[in-house]
Write a structure and sequence with these properties.
This protein is mostly beta strands. It has helices at residues 2-10, 51-57, 62-68, and strands spanning 42-44, 82-84, 127-131, 134-138, 171-173, 176-178, 186-188, 200-203, 209-211, 216-222, 230-235, 240-250, 257-258, 263-267, 276-283, 286-288. The protein contains three helices and 16 strands. The protein starts with a helix and ends in a 9-residue tail after the last strand.
Length: 297
């Protein structure tokens, strides 16, 4: 017994520390759901999906996703169609990839349109797509057409808001002039090796304005990506996208052109335990550190 007590005295129990007060160590609390390091081989298109949303969810370049699956402008996809998420064996990349039209995020037949554009037909009839301001007819022959699913709840539409812009410090990177998307301090930064920290979290009050970080076109506006809440994605070029998550309200629809500093949403806490803006910049589908693009404060 004496020997046992002596051994215990030499190996006291590990101390217990209360870390509940530490801010910024919440990897799995309010950050978007981790994206698998390796995406699945294929994905079946669901109502409300768009090519951009599928590519964003799987950290793929939307142009490559379209090329792998033989999808051509206006990049029409239909529920029930299976998309390959990996480069096919023997695939040879084209010399150039055609730039996408102004609006190519496609609504499924069962969802209410977020922007004034015709929804794809459910039969192989001509599809009217807005491209370069002119209506053109195109028959989608690349994929079979699936019957629309029954009783699909349409996503919430954006709330109209007056178009106002706020100018501020900017930083020119790769021909794009970037500015901060919201006021407030950075609560959590980007970590390349951490799939739950693919962007930065900016704190603020509920209802505070969320602004476009640069000129571009809205290619996603909805709440269909798990972990992001009410989300807006803007395309700034064929290479760069930016994403704005956890909003309380969205003010822009898919296909809308926005200017840097334009209010696109209200800060909120959808999909998060606290009020914040989760902001990402993607280059060719891959997350990169937004602080390398935003001006110094």
């Amino acid at each position: 017994m004496a020997a046992w007590l002596a051994a215990c005295a030499q190996n006291p129990p590990a101390p217990v520390h209360d870390l509940s007060h530490v801010v910024g160590t919440r990897a799995a609390v309010s950050s978007p759901a981790a994206t698998p390091a390796t995406p699945p081989d294929a994905y079946v298109v669901k109502a409300g999906d768009s090519l951009y949303a599928i590519a964003f969810r799987n950290q793929l370049d939307w142009r490559e996703l379209a090329a792998w699956n033989g999808i051509k402008p206006p990049y029409t996809i239909y529920p029930g169609v299976t998309l390959q998420l990996r480069q096919p064996s023997g695939y040879r990349a084209p010399a150039t990839v055609a730039a996408a039209p102004v609006f190519e995020a496609v609504e499924s037949p069962a969802t209410a349109p977020l922007a004034p554009h015709p929804a794809p037909a459910t039969t192989p009839a001509p599809v009217v797509a807005a491209s370069n301001g002119q209506a053109t007819a195109k028959t989608p022959t690349e994929h079979p057409v699936a019957s629309p699913p029954a009783a699909v709840e349409p996503p919430a539409t954006a709330t109209a808001s007056p178009v106002t812009t706020v100018s501020g410090p900017t930083r020119l990177v790769d021909g794009i002039r970037w500015q901060w998307p919201a006021d407030g301090r950075v609560l959590q930064g980007y970590v390349a090796a951490d799939p739950t920290r693919q962007g930065i979290d900016i704190g603020g009050r509920a209802g505070a304005p969320v602004r476009a970080a640069a000129d571009g076109v809205v290619v996603y506006s909805g709440n269909g990506l798990v972990g992001y809440g009410e989300l807006v994605i803007i395309k700034h070029s064929d290479i760069y996208l930016s994403a704005y998550g956890h909003n309380r309200k969205r003010f822009v629809n898919e296909g809308a052109r926005v200017k840097a500093g334009q209010s696109i949403a209200e800060m909120g806490s959808t999909g998060a335990p606290r009020t914040e803006l989760h902001f990402e910049i993607r280059k060719q589908g891959k997350p990169i550190d937004p602080l390398g693009f935003l001006p110094t404060r």
